[in-house]
Batch of 2 targets.
Target 1
Amino acid sequence: MPYPTKMVKTIRWKCEACDLTWIHPIETCLYCDKQVKKIIGTKHKVIGITEVHIPNPLHPIVPYNVLLLQDEHGNKMPKKTMKKYGVGDTYEDKPNDSERAISSIKIKYDFYEAVKEALELIGDIDAKGKKVLLKPNLSIPAYPYLGLSTNPKVLDALIQILKEKGAAKIAIAEQSFFVPTEKAVAKSGLAELMKKHDIEFIDIAETEFEEKKQREFTFKVSKIVDDFDLLINVPVIKTDMVLGMDGAFENLTRFLAKETFDDLAKDPQKAALALAALLNIFPKFLTIGDASIGTQGNGPAQHGEPGFYGLIFAARNPVVHDTAVQEVFCLRKLPYVQMAGKLGMGEYDYNKIEFVGNELDALRKDIKQPIGSKLLKKG
Ligand SMILES: [Zn+2]
């Protein structure tokens, strides 16, 4: 696969007429009003190192190093790492398209570049001529800053990337089991997004369902996925009082008929087994985990509180995705993900997961845990 050689990116916005550079995105120069150019640096050398020994909830593991990197344009950026580097060393990230890989990118100002880089780091996607279905989490009506639904900026970036890659069709599918779906869609900012990109929204509740058997379960599941060539799961990362964490697995539950969901919701232990089995119903899909703004504490039933993490994840395997993300946020192990792992659906030992973009220990954050989960207490 033709990977870019060195993947770390430094992004600047430059007015060439005034020879001025900004670190945040602007469209036209503040002084001469001319169009600015996006400058992306990809070749980085270490020009300084700070070893940090004082922990805080966002950086609980010490000591760590903050490298000062300089790109081929002379632009600088900091990079956190647990590894040892020397001044003058080259810093680079190699893309990894393995099923065991997860990429993570810090969003500074540019969602488009962050999503693009996260995809490139797992070997990128081929969307040319394909019908692509996006499955965000919009189950609760909430403004994007609350971190309860997938950030429209992440979806906007993803749609733009898919269009550039020549996708034949892009649609968004979701349903809410708790409120009329259009209410959740309106508050989430999705309506504007669909208008901007001229794409279709599919209310899963209105699609055709069929019964599928998997282990001891009979699921009534939407047939909508069959109409598409590629499914991209785009959950927002939320703590969950029942499931521990809402990630790739939980986001699939809204492909189920409400009666199946209600039946499973009665018994968390049964729901956990069902979640593990559910995965086998779906064709292979990609997960883009939106942790730009997530939820911490007692989410989502008591709404928790927003967590401003500024991170995007991408993985080819949902077991790898949810295992890695749960570790990043120091949450307790998710029994349904482990179960799926034991059934051979993906790597569930985080020591064997290959982190690209950022190292696990450099990402770890000690967030507010969900308390009162019967499911997690027993596990
Ligand atoms: Zn200018």
Note: The mean pLDDT is 92.
Target 2
Amino acid sequence: MNTTLKAKKVEDLPYVKGMLKKVNLSDFSYESKAKTDEAVAKTNNGKFNNEQVANVSKNIDFRLSGLKQYINQAADNNFYLKVTADLSNDAIVQGSIKILAENLDIYVPVEKLLPKSSAEMEAEGSNDMQFVIEEQESGYSLSLCGDYNPSDARYYSSIYSTNPTDCHDHGTSCGIYQDREWWNNYAYNYYAELCHNDCADLVSQALSYGGLPEDGTWYATKYTSTRSLTWVNTGYLKNYMTGNDYWRTTTYSSATEGAVMYTASNHVVMIAQNDTITHQYNGHTNDRYRANFSDSPSFVYYKLW
Ligand SMILES: [Zn+2]
């Protein structure tokens, strides 16, 4: 599909309405930083210091500036559907047709991928804003990944992802959808040991491109096939990133472009879009470009800012 938001400005999005209501702002002007600061300061009965107020305001500005890019912007929105039906005497049994949608590495009824109601999205915005306020109350600093540019990371994961219908190495026999000719083979030579399992490798490359600093534990040597275990192994990657406070757990609704997510089977992908209504990811194993997904209790989201 190719979809465009109905909202003509970010304040029309139910999610943003919920966010702004939480801090008693009915609208938002990019020029009125003082007004935002004043409203934020009041939300916590004046208990926030100046730095905390600035951090909450920065968070609001970050989210709304990020959303602005999606207004009046048509974008590809890819779904993978599986249709099943029972057969009787070579005929389809009426009422037995089921349409399932791929949701990362699980299948869900296709209805699960429809947008949530306005009320639900407004509640998401309100809850996420509450989370930002509580994060400041607990003294969270926003500066840990100061050099990380989520848009750059998203860009990288987008240009090296595609939507193949079979496997480059094994055709249809392995059941994996992978086209490694599309990968960044120039800078990161193919790492044969990984075979299909390139999901952490892609996410690491994108994080590095986005500005996250490599070190003696998390690294890849460019123009060779050398990668550290922490770079290519999903479990090691998660332990390293959370252990160094680069990643913080977040919600489905506040995981925006450049954030990462894990499934229950330890598959990792990068968020490509979250305009509050449409959520997409890029990934390898299976290779996926701007694939739609919905929340699941088995998914875990991490943000880097
Ligand atoms: Zn294969």
Note: The domain at 142-303 is CATH 3.90.1720.10 (endopeptidase fold (from Nostoc punctiforme)).
